[in-house]
Amino acid sequence: MGIARDLYISRRPVAGLAAIGIFWGSFAAWLPEIKTRAGVSDAEFGVLMMLSAVGGMSAMMAAPWLRRRIGPTILPLSGLIFAIVASSPALVHGRTGLAAALLVIGASMSLCDILSNIRISDIEAREGRSLMNLNHAIYSLALAASAAIMGIFRAVGVPHALAAGLIVLVILGLVIVMRGARPLRDTAEREAEPSGIGAPWLIVLPGAAILWLSFVVENGVESWGAIHIERTLEVAGGLGSFGPAMFGLAMGLARLAGQGLTQTLGEVRLIAFSVCMAAIGTVALALAPVIGIAIFGAAAAGLGVAVVVPTANSLIARTVPAGQRASAIARAWMMGFTGFFIGPPLMGLISEAAGLRAAFGLLACAVVLMLPCLWLLARRLRGRPATAQRA
Question: What is the Cα–Cα distance from 48 to 46, expressed in whole angstroms?
């Protein structure tokens, strides 16, 4: 009943994250075909993915302001915009079309994502319990299911346009769940936030760095996993999508477990253990000689990075006063979420020069770099009074 109640009280942001997972799983599964249809090389595709970062950064900068001006209805509105643009990858037939699609997807997806995470943080503060891992588990499970289903669709010859239409309908259904939210913050917080005093950039920097590195790894595996398996290991089209699918499934299951593990191990030790698992997975992906080991690597990487983002998110929110919570999360994500979009371009450039095995080796290095950032974040958290951490 505990998980059921947690899902119910956070059902609106859960719907937002599920919508993003469903789209991204589909996008990852169809990427080999999208890339071929657009007629771009690995390096060109990597550079075009930077446009998603431009759109995402713009949306995240605007998110706190939009939230103050429009109120809770901004979440379903962001979901509606996301649903409208979700079919754009199926319409891509060249570089220009791919560039435009990535720009609008980056902006709409990022807005829905950051608003969902801020909403979860507010609910956590009200309920006095951790909800980030559970909510992000739904995102990962939605991604896994979507990637697997779309991989089957590709294998049996379902047109991309038809599959994209189905994704749009599902997201529209989730937008209905997002509706009806009311303000959660108390009067003191609402008065503090519009004052223009945001969370200090240096305070959120260690947490933002962890988010950045984690997102580099996450989207690197999701975007290039299918291409790596199908090209490097020379397997049939459609089977490569089971790499991202297994990655998402492992992330979802790990996040469900993380909901309880945070109480047992504590956030900092949980992230440290997860980083070690992610390192094993990314190295296995880089060196995999056969598809079985590649899928194992994807699963291990998913288990490893699963709890990093949601757990770090909770830590970031606890390092600042309550009135700066939305600002801290928005600023950390504005810096950190660029990794979600920069990861694939970096992978593309390295793949063009040295191959996809070297690109996945880069992801292993990114995983290890999380450890010094975690130490800095834990040090900052220890400097906060216990009462302030619970605010």
Answer: 5
